[in-house]
Amino acid sequence: MEQYTQLLTQLITNADQAVTDENLEYLVNFYTENGTLVVKDDFHISGKPSLKKHFSYLDPEELLAIKEYN
Predict the structure, then answer these.
(1) DSSP assignments along 15-63, one per residue
(2) pTM more than 0.85
């Protein structure tokens, strides 16, 4: 069980670093083809093309806000 905890922790760390580095390609590839990002209760973004479009519109401060929220 500990190995899964370590793996999950590393994935989260990598995603956080991608936000900091503004590595949008990594963030998009973090999701499956039909993956969904729940921004808030009534705002969901599904699918890699939509995720890529959404992430590309964010400015660095918004990306950091996502990191701080998670």
Answers:
(1) HHHHHHTT-HHHHHHTS-TT-EEEEETTEEEESHHHHHHHHHH--HHHH
(2) no
pLDDT one digit per residue (tens) for the chain, 70 residues: 899 999 999 988 998 888 788 888 888 888 899 999 888 888 899 999 998 888 877 766 666 666 565 5
Distance (Å, whole) CA 10 – CA 30: 12
**What's the burial of 18, exposed, middle or buried (CB within 10 Å: 0-12/13-18/19+)?**
buried
